[in-house]
Amino acid sequence: xxxxxxxxxxxxxxxxxxxxxxxxxxxxxxxxxxxxxxxxxxxxxxxxxxxxxxxxxxxxxxxxxxxxxxxxxxxxxxxxxxxxxxxxxxxxxxxxxxxxxxxxxxxxxxxxxxxxxxxxxxxxxxxxxxxxxxxxxxxxxxxxxxxxxxxxxxxxxxxxxxxxxxxxxxxxxxxxxxxxxxxxxxxxxxxxxxxxxxxxxxxxxxxxxxxxxxxxxxxxxxxxxxxxxxxxxxxxxxxxxxxxxxxxxxxxxxxxxxxxxxxxxxxxxxxxxxxxxxxxxxxxxxxxxxxxxxxxxxxxxxxxxxxxxxxxxxxxxxxxxxxxxxxxxxxxxxxxxxxxxxxxxxxxxxxxxxxxxxxxxxxxxxxxxxxxxxxxxxxxxxxxxxxxxxxxxxxxxxxx
Length: 400
What we know:
By secondary structure, the chain is α/β, with parallel strands linked by helices. It folds into two domains: 2-30 and 269-391, no CATH class; 38-170 and 210-263, Spore Coat Polysaccharide Biosynthesis Protein SpsA, Chain A (Alpha-Beta Complex), CATH 3.90.550. It contains 14 helices and twelve strands. A seven-stranded mixed β-sheet has the order 3-2-1-4-8-6-9, sandwiched between helices. The protein has a three-stranded mixed β-sheet with strand order 5-10-7. Strands 11-12 form a two-stranded antiparallel sheet. The two termini are 39 Å apart.
C-alpha cells in the first residue's frame, strides 16, 4: 500500500515535469522562430556616429589577440577600441600595449586597482568609459570574436529602429567536453524568462544584455548611472540591461549567432564556478526559495532518468509501477528533445553532446548543490582569479 501511494505520488510529480518541459520546448521553438536577426531589417539612411568599443580584459592572454584582430578589421568607418587591462597577472597588458603601438584605433587603459565594493569587470568598464569619446558605447568581452560587418549592422539597426540600446545573442562556444554536455541543459532556460520575446515586449519588465555584445547611446548609459549603478552585481550585463528596461528606455535583443562567437566557459573549473555563482546570491535572498529552486532543477533536469531505470525493473507488474515507468519515459524523452533542439538550433553543436544529457544535468545539479552548501559557510564566489563576498548586496540580475 505504501509503495502504491509512493508510486502514484511520483507519477503526479512526473506529470508536472512533463508539463513543464512541454512549456519549455514550446518557449524554445517560439524563441527560435520569432527572435529577430541583427542583419535582417529595413535599413534607414543615417549618419555614422562615433562608436567607442569598451573591452575589459583580465588574464586574457589566450583570447585577447583574436578579439582585437576581429575588431580592428571592422568595416565601420568611425570607431575606437578602448582596451582595459584589469590588473592582469599574465601577458594581457603587454598584448594590449603592443597592439596599441601598431594600430591607432586602440586606446590602452591600465585600470587602477579595484576599489572595495566593486566587481572587477564593472570597475574596468567604468575606467574605459572615462576615456570614451563616441556617441555610442559598445561593450564586449575579450573572449569574443566578431564578423567584419557586425558594428555597421549594430549601429544601423540601433538607429533605424530609434533604439536606446541593442544587445546581440552570440553563438556560445564551449571548449572542453564537460561544458559541451552541460551548456545544452542549462541554456534551455534562457528561452523563458530572458528570451528576446520578453525583452522586446515593452509591456514586460524583462531587460537583459549579453555581455559579449551590447551597444547603447552614451547618454542612456550615463542616465542609468553607468556600471557604477551595478558595481556589486556579479552578472553585471543582466543587471544593466534590467536597469535600462526599468528606466523606460527602448531596447531590443536580436540574434547574431552567425556573426559573433563568445566563449561561455573555458574549462571545468570556470564551469563549476559559473554554476555556483548562480546559487549563492539566490540563497542570500531567500534560503527557503533557493532550496526550492534547487529541487525544482533537480527534478526537471535529472530525476526522470534514475526514476526511469528504477521503474523499468518493475514495469507493468502493477498499475502504479506502469504509470511511473510511462511518465518517467515521457519526461526523459522530453528532456532529450529539449537538449537536441538547443544543440542543433541554438548552440549549433554536434548532436552527440545532447546524448550526454543525463550527465550534463547531473553536473548542473551538483554545481547548484555545491553553491548552496558554500553559501551556508562562506557567501563568496570566485571569478577571474578574485573572490567576491555576496553578503552585503542582493543581486538584482538574478532576483527571485
